[in-house]
Amino acid sequence: MRVLEVTRDDIPKDFIILIPIGSIEQHGPHLPLGTDSIIAEHVAGEVERRFSSKVLLYPTIAVGFSMEHVGFKGVTWVRFESLVHYLLDLIESTSAWDAGGVVFVNGHGGNVDALNIVVKSWNYNHDRPRALHYYIYNPRVTNFMKRFFPSFGHADAVETSIIASISRDLVRWDRIVDVEVSGNINVVRTIDVSSTGVIGTLRRDLIKPEFGAELLRFIIDDLINQLRIYYPTLELTPG
After folding, report:
1. 175 near 217, Cβ under 8 Å?
2. Disulfide check for 107: which of 8, 36, 66, 181 has CB 3.0–4.6 Å away?
3. Whole-number Cα distances in Å, 201 to 156, 182, 183
4. 239, pLDDT greater than 70
């Protein structure tokens, strides 16, 4: 079910709310500003498609915490504390109508700290709905990723392959330039270490839409497994 398309009487009891969250920020000269949001929305949408009777899909929260990319055109952000308060309010608003869980499907590393605080703050003080932060690039996923890519960064071969697997038309293929850049953008801004906005390895020979599709399949299955672990009473079965 998609929340924008149902009525109040269509919403069942004991269901999971899925909320994709990403960013609007630069992803080099070759990937769209909404890369993280597009990927998160794709993953959440696939889960909703398989479990539509138990999952209520919300619209994507596209603007997150992206101040690490300030200095490049197109970067849009909210303050860390603003994001935390907004997400806590969002969970609280659902707490009166029998939601079993609120799951943030997060495609942007800059949101991780805020979401971890939100989930702990809510769950430590409330029984329902149980909040969960699913980060698309969690250790299980990055370990699987090593089969195809030497490293994982930002706007690199990994993200380019994933976006290409969703839609090849979203990649500006003629703007790809092979680069390899290291830098910790949890400490410094991207622009301070990378003039292209790319962090990690971007090489044409590494960009494979079929690898991106394999990663997406793994991520979707991993998310479903986590939902079954965290919400065992909801009997998450296809349909």
Report:
1. no
2. 36
3. 5, 9, 12
4. no
